[in-house]
Amino acid sequence: MYSLRRVTRPLPTFASALRSAVSGAVLAHDELVTLLQARSSDFAALHSAAAAATKRVFGDEVSMRGIVEFSNACEKRCTYCGVTAYDRKFLVSHEQILECCEYMHRAGYRNIVLQSGEIASEQRIDWVCELLDKIKRRYTFERDRGMCVVLSIGELSRRQYERLFDAGAQRYLLRIEASDRQLYEQIHPTDGNHSYERRLQCLRDLKDIGYVTGTGVMVGLPGQTYDNLANDVAFFRDNQFHMIGLGPYIIHKDTVMGKSIISRTTQKEREETAVEAGMTTLNMYNVLRLQCPYINIAATTALETLKRGYKKLALTGGSNVLMPIITPKQFRAGYQLYEGKKEVDMDREETHREVLKLLNDIGKKPVFTKWNHPPLFMHKQRQELNP
Ligand code: SAH
């Protein structure tokens, strides 16, 4: 089935679930389902409640991070992901990445996200460590003045995560993709190279080492249910992840999953599912904000690809982070995880200008020059320093 089917068993009312959420209670599973399925006036009420919670913690500030997608070479074969579809592999050079840093630093950014396909060789780790060293020498890793480097380069060994941490990386993003083991296994090949257990272990290692750790899922995967999504929210909340990046699944026609969906659905069905996934993604941000007020929640790029205006909705609701793409234009076409990514035809100035306009339109204030680690992380750190 390729649609997010609504739960048909009796559920708590929307009014009672929202009341619990606003009171700060830890929501029960079915209360989460009720909120995630909210539509029309309920959708708007959930949005307003999350907006108030976001404002209480972050005021009108939106934290800005620039993302450089530096390579599409990947050892994994995730069935949904577009990087598997490109025969032409690229690796942006250190010099080109430093040039992106220079642009970002001048524009005010103090956070750089480095993302790529997954290459777990020691040689690649050496390469990233050398890059970290160059960034450190040029800008320092001093909070708010220097650069905060965020990595999103997949599953590595604990030792490799430690090396990157010691070299100065501060944060790490690794989506669990689907916190339900069965669903996770459905969307990854059974080639011995993809393991749910391993992915969980990576997340535990990252947190344990001391990274500000982010995770997330895709919304609208074939076979996914609202029960799965409610469990995803509980998974993020109960494991106290510091950051969440999640977004709608979007078809890439040259992937295993994309081909399978296209062969058995109509265009209309796909469009309906996409709208459902977009609305549900927004509900996920809003529910998460109420359940975890002190985490950072990014408004994902995939959301705007789905429907214009969704990013604004995310940022006027539960989300407080934006990650404009700074990848040099010549590499953008080779890094389309999904189709219709509109930044592909833009250069970084255009991307930058567009996000400024977007924030201005909704009365939010972009914050570039602070690292803005999530309050949840800062709080834990203070507790550990002064027990
Ligand atoms: N190799 C890194 C980075 C992956 S790309 C890693 O494994 O963490 C970042 C995210 O893009 C993925 O974690 C996945 O959740 C998302 N993604 C991949 N394909 C997608 C698609 N077709 N639609 C929407 N999101 C997708």
Summarize the structure.
Helix content is 48%, strand content 12%. The protein has helices spanning 14-23, 29-36, 40-58, 94-107, 122-139, 158-166, 181-186, 196-209, 226-238, 256-264, 267-291, 301-306, 310-316, 329-332, 348-361, 375-385; strands spanning 61-64, 66-71, 111-116, 148-152, 171-173, 212-215, 218-219, 243-248, 296-299, 321-322, 365-367. Strand 7, helix 9 and strand 8 form a beta-alpha-beta unit.
Largest sheet: 11 strands, parallel
Label the structural class: alpha/beta
Q: Strand tally, please?
A: 11
Helical percentage: 40-55%
Number of distinct helices: 16
What's the Cα radius of gyration? Answer: 20 Å
In N-to-C order, the SSE pattern is: HHHEEHEHEHEHHEEHEHHEHHEHHEH
Catalogue the ligands. Answer: S-adenosyl-L-homocysteine
Q: Judging from the principal axes of the Cα atoms, what is the shape?
A: globular
Q: What percent of residues are in strands? A: 5-15%
Mean pLDDT comes to 96
Explain what you see:
By secondary structure, this protein is α/β, with parallel strands linked by helices. The protein is 48% helix and 12% strand. Strands 1, 2, 3, 4, 5, 6, 7, 8, 9, 10 and 11 form an 11-stranded parallel beta sheet that branches. Helix 3 packs across helix 11 and helix 9 runs parallel beside helix 11 (267-291). The longest helix is centred in the C-terminal third of the chain and has 25 residues, at 267-291. The mean pLDDT is 96. S-adenosyl-L-homocysteine is lined by residues 80-82, 115, 117-118, 152-154, 174-175, 177, 218, 247, 249-250, 252, 302, 337-338.
